[in-house]
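ok so I'm stuck.
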Amino acid sequence: MDGILLVNKPAGMTSHDVVNRMRKILHTKKVGHCGTLDPDATGVLVLCIGKATKALQFLMSETKVYQATLFLGTATDTYDSSGQIMEEKAFHGVRDVEETLQSFIGKQQQIPPIYSAIKVHGKKLYEYARNQEHVDIQPRTIMIEKIELISQQDQSITFQVKCSKGTYIRSLCVDIGKKLGYPAHMTHLIRLASGEFYLEDCYSLEDIEQGHYQFMSLEDAFQHFEHYYIDDENIVYHGKKIKSDIDHQVVVCNQNHKVLAVYGPDGEGYLKSIRGLF
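replied:
not stuck anymore, here's the structure
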Protein backbone atom coordinates (compact mmCIF):
# COMPACT_ATOMS: atom_id res chain seq x y z
CA MET A 1 0.00 0.00 0.00
CA ASP A 2 2.13 2.83 -1.34
CA GLY A 3 1.25 6.19 -2.88
CA ILE A 4 -0.04 9.71 -2.36
CA LEU A 5 -3.50 10.31 -0.91
CA LEU A 6 -5.13 13.74 -1.25
CA VAL A 7 -7.45 14.45 1.68
CA ASN A 8 -9.97 17.24 2.17
CA LYS A 9 -9.25 17.89 5.83
CA PRO A 10 -12.40 18.64 7.85
CA ALA A 11 -12.58 21.43 10.42
CA GLY A 12 -11.97 20.47 14.04
CA MET A 13 -9.07 18.09 13.38
CA THR A 14 -5.36 18.71 13.45
CA SER A 15 -3.28 17.48 10.54
CA HIS A 16 -1.82 14.86 12.88
CA ASP A 17 -5.35 13.74 13.81
CA VAL A 18 -5.94 13.01 10.13
CA VAL A 19 -2.67 11.07 9.92
CA ASN A 20 -3.70 8.96 12.93
CA ARG A 21 -7.12 8.28 11.42
CA MET A 22 -5.51 7.18 8.15
CA ARG A 23 -3.14 4.85 10.00
CA LYS A 24 -6.15 3.07 11.48
CA ILE A 25 -8.16 2.99 8.26
CA LEU A 26 -5.28 1.86 6.06
CA HIS A 27 -3.70 -0.41 8.71
CA THR A 28 -0.22 1.04 8.35
CA LYS A 29 1.99 3.22 10.52
CA LYS A 30 3.73 4.63 7.47
CA VAL A 31 1.66 7.77 6.94
CA GLY A 32 2.99 11.33 6.84
CA HIS A 33 1.65 14.70 5.73
CA CYS A 34 3.09 17.51 3.60
CA GLY A 35 2.33 20.84 5.24
CA THR A 36 0.26 21.48 8.36
CA LEU A 37 -3.24 22.97 8.31
CA ASP A 38 -4.73 24.74 11.34
CA PRO A 39 -7.38 22.66 13.17
CA ASP A 40 -10.22 24.99 12.10
CA ALA A 41 -9.08 25.06 8.46
CA THR A 42 -10.31 22.72 5.75
CA GLY A 43 -8.96 21.69 2.36
CA VAL A 44 -5.96 20.10 0.71
CA LEU A 45 -3.83 17.89 2.94
CA VAL A 46 -1.30 15.77 1.03
CA LEU A 47 -0.58 12.41 2.66
CA CYS A 48 2.24 10.03 1.75
CA ILE A 49 1.57 6.34 2.41
CA GLY A 50 4.00 3.43 2.70
CA LYS A 51 7.15 3.76 0.60
CA ALA A 52 5.86 7.12 -0.64
CA THR A 53 6.76 8.60 2.78
CA LYS A 54 10.31 8.76 1.39
CA ALA A 55 9.05 11.50 -0.95
CA LEU A 56 7.64 13.74 1.81
CA GLN A 57 10.45 16.29 1.79
CA PHE A 58 10.13 16.84 -1.97
CA LEU A 59 6.36 17.33 -2.01
CA MET A 60 6.35 20.20 0.50
CA SER A 61 5.06 22.63 -2.09
CA GLU A 62 6.53 26.12 -2.28
CA THR A 63 3.20 27.77 -3.13
CA LYS A 64 -0.28 27.47 -1.63
CA VAL A 65 -3.68 28.84 -2.59
CA TYR A 66 -6.25 29.68 0.09
CA GLN A 67 -9.70 31.17 0.39
CA ALA A 68 -10.11 33.04 3.66
CA THR A 69 -12.73 35.13 5.41
CA LEU A 70 -11.84 37.82 7.91
CA PHE A 71 -14.09 39.71 10.31
CA LEU A 72 -13.54 43.41 10.99
CA GLY A 73 -14.10 44.92 14.41
CA THR A 74 -12.83 42.16 16.71
CA ALA A 75 -9.31 40.89 17.41
CA THR A 76 -8.47 37.65 19.23
CA ASP A 77 -5.29 36.32 20.81
CA THR A 78 -5.14 33.42 18.33
CA TYR A 79 -6.00 35.60 15.30
CA ASP A 80 -8.98 33.31 14.59
CA SER A 81 -12.43 32.56 15.99
CA SER A 82 -11.15 30.06 18.55
CA GLY A 83 -9.39 32.67 20.67
CA GLN A 84 -10.22 35.13 23.41
CA ILE A 85 -11.37 38.60 22.33
CA MET A 86 -8.56 41.11 22.90
CA GLU A 87 -9.90 44.24 21.20
CA GLU A 88 -13.16 45.51 19.76
CA LYS A 89 -14.13 48.49 17.65
CA ALA A 90 -17.56 49.49 16.37
CA PHE A 91 -17.90 48.96 12.63
CA HIS A 92 -18.75 52.09 10.66
CA GLY A 93 -18.13 50.83 7.15
CA VAL A 94 -15.00 50.42 5.08
CA ARG A 95 -13.60 51.72 1.81
CA ASP A 96 -10.93 50.74 -0.72
CA VAL A 97 -11.01 47.04 0.15
CA GLU A 98 -9.73 45.86 -3.24
CA GLU A 99 -6.93 48.42 -3.28
CA THR A 100 -5.93 47.41 0.25
CA LEU A 101 -5.77 43.74 -0.71
CA GLN A 102 -3.63 44.54 -3.76
CA SER A 103 -1.17 46.45 -1.56
CA PHE A 104 -0.12 43.13 -0.01
CA ILE A 105 1.19 41.67 -3.28
CA GLY A 106 4.95 41.06 -3.27
CA LYS A 107 7.73 40.01 -0.91
CA GLN A 108 7.31 41.20 2.68
CA GLN A 109 8.03 40.53 6.34
CA GLN A 110 5.28 38.86 8.34
CA ILE A 111 5.07 38.28 12.08
CA PRO A 112 3.58 34.82 12.80
CA PRO A 113 0.80 34.40 15.40
CA ILE A 114 2.01 33.51 18.87
CA TYR A 115 -0.45 30.61 18.73
CA SER A 116 1.62 28.69 16.18
CA ALA A 117 3.98 25.74 16.14
CA ILE A 118 7.10 27.72 15.21
CA LYS A 119 9.92 26.92 17.62
CA VAL A 120 11.91 29.60 19.46
CA HIS A 121 14.76 28.38 21.69
CA GLY A 122 13.48 24.82 21.31
CA LYS A 123 9.94 25.60 22.47
CA LYS A 124 6.83 26.14 20.32
CA LEU A 125 5.33 29.62 20.33
CA TYR A 126 1.93 28.42 21.53
CA GLU A 127 3.64 26.96 24.61
CA TYR A 128 4.92 30.43 25.53
CA ALA A 129 1.40 31.80 24.99
CA ARG A 130 -0.26 29.16 27.16
CA ASN A 131 2.30 29.74 29.93
CA GLN A 132 1.90 33.52 29.57
CA GLU A 133 5.64 33.85 28.98
CA HIS A 134 7.17 36.67 26.97
CA VAL A 135 8.94 35.75 23.73
CA ASP A 136 10.32 37.81 20.88
CA ILE A 137 8.73 36.70 17.61
CA GLN A 138 10.92 37.40 14.63
CA PRO A 139 9.28 38.37 11.31
CA ARG A 140 9.65 35.97 8.41
CA THR A 141 9.98 36.69 4.71
CA ILE A 142 6.91 35.65 2.72
CA MET A 143 5.66 36.21 -0.81
CA ILE A 144 2.09 37.06 -1.84
CA GLU A 145 1.85 36.27 -5.55
CA LYS A 146 -1.82 37.04 -6.06
CA ILE A 147 -4.74 38.21 -3.94
CA GLU A 148 -8.28 39.01 -4.99
CA LEU A 149 -11.55 39.96 -3.36
CA ILE A 150 -14.23 37.28 -3.57
CA SER A 151 -17.00 38.97 -1.61
CA GLN A 152 -17.72 41.58 1.04
CA GLN A 153 -20.74 41.60 3.31
CA ASP A 154 -20.70 44.17 6.10
CA GLN A 155 -17.81 43.20 8.40
CA SER A 156 -16.90 39.99 6.59
CA ILE A 157 -14.42 40.02 3.72
CA THR A 158 -13.66 36.86 1.73
CA PHE A 159 -10.57 36.74 -0.47
CA GLN A 160 -8.40 34.27 -2.35
CA VAL A 161 -4.63 34.36 -2.05
CA LYS A 162 -1.70 32.57 -3.66
CA CYS A 163 1.31 32.72 -1.38
CA SER A 164 4.61 31.17 -0.42
CA LYS A 165 5.04 28.27 1.96
CA GLY A 166 5.19 29.53 5.54
CA THR A 167 2.66 32.33 5.09
CA TYR A 168 0.22 32.61 7.99
CA ILE A 169 -3.19 33.58 6.63
CA ARG A 170 -4.31 34.42 10.18
CA SER A 171 -1.59 37.07 10.34
CA LEU A 172 -2.50 38.28 6.87
CA CYS A 173 -6.13 38.76 7.97
CA VAL A 174 -5.01 40.78 11.00
CA ASP A 175 -2.69 42.92 8.86
CA ILE A 176 -5.43 43.57 6.29
CA GLY A 177 -7.74 44.64 9.11
CA LYS A 178 -5.12 47.08 10.45
CA LYS A 179 -4.76 48.70 7.02
CA LEU A 180 -8.53 49.08 6.86
CA GLY A 181 -8.56 50.67 10.31
CA TYR A 182 -10.03 47.84 12.36
CA PRO A 183 -8.98 45.01 14.67
CA ALA A 184 -9.69 41.77 12.82
CA HIS A 185 -9.49 38.00 12.95
CA MET A 186 -9.88 35.10 10.55
CA THR A 187 -13.19 33.24 10.64
CA HIS A 188 -12.82 30.73 7.81
CA LEU A 189 -9.96 29.14 5.85
CA ILE A 190 -9.89 26.66 2.97
CA ARG A 191 -6.69 25.47 1.31
CA LEU A 192 -7.62 25.23 -2.36
CA ALA A 193 -4.24 24.06 -3.60
CA SER A 194 -0.84 22.95 -2.38
CA GLY A 195 1.54 23.20 -5.31
CA GLU A 196 0.01 21.08 -8.06
CA PHE A 197 -2.39 19.26 -5.71
CA TYR A 198 -5.94 20.64 -5.87
CA LEU A 199 -9.04 20.50 -3.68
CA GLU A 200 -11.20 19.05 -6.46
CA ASP A 201 -8.96 15.96 -6.48
CA CYS A 202 -9.20 15.37 -2.72
CA TYR A 203 -11.21 12.70 -0.89
CA SER A 204 -13.23 13.20 2.28
CA LEU A 205 -12.51 11.02 5.31
CA GLU A 206 -15.91 9.40 4.75
CA ASP A 207 -14.93 8.52 1.16
CA ILE A 208 -11.73 6.90 2.37
CA GLU A 209 -13.43 5.00 5.20
CA GLN A 210 -15.87 3.56 2.66
CA GLY A 211 -13.06 2.57 0.30
CA HIS A 212 -13.97 5.19 -2.29
CA TYR A 213 -10.48 6.52 -3.03
CA GLN A 214 -7.49 6.00 -5.26
CA PHE A 215 -3.82 6.49 -4.51
CA MET A 216 -1.82 8.86 -6.69
CA SER A 217 1.38 7.25 -7.95
CA LEU A 218 4.82 8.76 -7.44
CA GLU A 219 4.95 9.16 -11.21
CA ASP A 220 1.87 11.40 -11.14
CA ALA A 221 2.99 13.24 -8.01
CA PHE A 222 6.35 14.11 -9.61
CA GLN A 223 5.05 14.86 -13.11
CA HIS A 224 5.77 18.58 -12.73
CA PHE A 225 9.40 17.99 -11.71
CA GLU A 226 12.30 17.84 -14.16
CA HIS A 227 13.08 14.24 -15.09
CA TYR A 228 16.40 12.56 -15.86
CA TYR A 229 16.23 9.17 -17.59
CA ILE A 230 18.80 6.40 -17.19
CA ASP A 231 19.33 3.07 -18.92
CA ASP A 232 20.88 1.18 -16.01
CA GLU A 233 18.70 1.21 -12.89
CA ASN A 234 21.50 -0.37 -10.85
CA ILE A 235 23.23 3.01 -10.81
CA VAL A 236 20.41 4.29 -8.63
CA TYR A 237 19.90 1.12 -6.60
CA HIS A 238 23.57 1.20 -5.59
CA GLY A 239 23.55 4.95 -4.92
CA LYS A 240 26.17 5.71 -7.55
CA LYS A 241 26.79 9.21 -8.90
CA ILE A 242 25.82 10.29 -12.41
CA LYS A 243 28.18 12.49 -14.43
CA SER A 244 26.25 15.64 -15.34
CA ASP A 245 26.55 19.43 -15.31
CA ILE A 246 22.93 19.85 -14.11
CA ASP A 247 22.96 22.30 -11.19
CA HIS A 248 19.61 21.51 -9.56
CA GLN A 249 17.55 18.61 -8.26
CA VAL A 250 15.99 16.17 -10.75
CA VAL A 251 13.78 13.11 -10.51
CA VAL A 252 15.64 10.10 -11.89
CA CYS A 253 13.50 7.60 -13.81
CA ASN A 254 14.08 4.42 -15.80
CA GLN A 255 13.17 4.09 -19.47
CA ASN A 256 9.65 3.01 -18.49
CA HIS A 257 9.15 6.34 -16.69
CA LYS A 258 9.20 4.71 -13.24
CA VAL A 259 10.42 7.14 -10.57
CA LEU A 260 13.52 5.79 -8.85
CA ALA A 261 15.12 8.60 -6.86
CA VAL A 262 15.79 12.29 -6.46
CA TYR A 263 19.31 13.38 -7.36
CA GLY A 264 21.07 16.71 -6.93
CA PRO A 265 24.43 18.31 -7.85
CA ASP A 266 27.51 17.50 -5.77
CA GLY A 267 29.42 20.60 -6.97
CA GLU A 268 32.03 18.49 -8.75
CA GLY A 269 30.31 17.74 -12.06
CA TYR A 270 28.15 14.89 -10.84
CA LEU A 271 24.61 14.26 -9.61
CA LYS A 272 24.43 12.41 -6.31
CA SER A 273 21.54 10.53 -4.76
CA ILE A 274 19.53 12.61 -2.29
CA ARG A 275 16.81 10.05 -1.66
CA GLY A 276 15.98 6.70 -3.17
CA LEU A 277 12.24 6.28 -3.78
CA PHE A 278 12.18 2.53 -4.43
